[in-house]
Predict the structure of NAD(P)-binding protein.
Amino acid sequence: MTRPHVLIAGAGIAGPSLAWWLSRRGWRVTVVERARALRTGGQAVDFRGPVHRTVLERMGLWEAIHERRTRLGAQALIDATGRTVTELPALMMSGDVELQRGDLCQLLFERTRDQVEYRFGDSPTALHETPEGVEVAFEQHAPQRFDLVVGADGLRSNVRSRVFGRDDGHLKHHGFRVVGCTLPNVLGLRQRGVIYSEPGRGVCVTSARADDEARAMFVFTGAPLGPQERSPDAAREAVSAAFAGAGWRTAQLVEALHGAEDLYFDAISSVRLPRYSHGRVVLLGDAAWGGTLGGQGTPMAMVGAYVLAGELLANPDAHAQAFARFEARLRPYALKCQGGASHVGGFFAPRTRAGLFLRNHIYGLLTTKPLERVFEKLVTHAATGFALPDYT
Ligand SMILES: Cc1cc2nc3c(=O)[nH]c(=O)nc-3n(C[C@H](O)[C@H](O)[C@H](O)COP(=O)(O)OP(=O)(O)OC[C@H]3O[C@@H](n4cnc5c(N)ncnc54)[C@H](O)[C@@H]3O)c2cc1C
């Protein structure tokens, strides 16, 4: 291929990361994003261990990310009186460095916008593979042929359903729902967070960049959600119902939630796919291995983009080989990191009193001085368990 032209669907984290790697080596990259503007919402995302750090350093982002870090400290598991039961070190909840998802999204966009064509407010409507490439039809733009198509369009990937079929089995539900939002800082938190749990429901509140704001996450047991059931109004209703009669200052937080504007509502689930690619189409990030929460989706998206770019640049005329090598390298790592998504609901909202008691005591023990190293290993082992290839 002479100067291959790649279409990337999705301007979240995975898409612009891949665009950065390919465009700087002379590939033509078009990113199509369904939203009318960059989606800079979301809570904090973190990076931990040398694999994540090396990728950020190779992208020249380590300093910029540090400048934007949240500086969040420890988070406390508290009881109904607000008393700290166990203090969770910053490394567990915020990794080595943490920043707001929106800041990272903006940073990646700024670093790529001059070399990459971004088309907002559009989406692929059909993909047809020919021996020469992939003919793509769009909602807005005229049809166009690309050498390769990358689906980096998130947990409910449109590209995935067009290529692999609309199979609900691709999303494995873990039995919990989550609502995230920004609230007034009614708890007066400063660079710290608290987690209050009762059987089947839990709320985590952390300080935000502005002193008068806090980030809240309500986690509760519940069935999967259809696309019409994830609206802000549905989120308010679901939290009100799930947290009715809950103790501590939960009622105050639920009331504050009714004024929140940036509500995010989803079921906690993760993607299970038999393959990441089909012909000239490959999936990346949440579209391929994502999880709603707890699966290190953001660093995984960036490590994945690094490996996919490395394999494509090393095999520019053999996309099938590049895709196969990408999947062989990434899949075991993605599966390991995805493991977190199946436990995260039970961590914030243990289903039973006994489960809650056990969680508090296990974390109480693990965070004691003699077990410091064991704990450190526990909270970083998935992230560090990958031999990052060197493509330089
Ligand atoms: C608004 C938002 C808030 C989030 N908040 C959090 C959070 O608080 N905590 C957390 O851990 N993770 C959050 N995530 C998920 C997190 O960004 C991902 O897990 C991770 O960064 C992997 O990134 P990704 O690029 O694969 O997916 P995403 O970051 O989800 O990006 C996918 C992009 O594809 C776009 N897209 C979707 N469908 C189409 C289509 N048909 N055509 C074109 N584009 C399409 C989406 O609008 C989005 O911009 C959030 C994602 C979004 C979009």
User: Anything to note?
Assistant: Residues 9-15, 32-35, 39, 41-43, 45, 101, 123, 152-154, 158, 180, 264, 285-287, 290, 293, 297-298, 301 surround flavin-adenine dinucleotide (CB under 6 Å). The domain at 5-71+98-170+270-345 is CATH 3.50.50.60 (FAD/NAD(P)-binding domain).
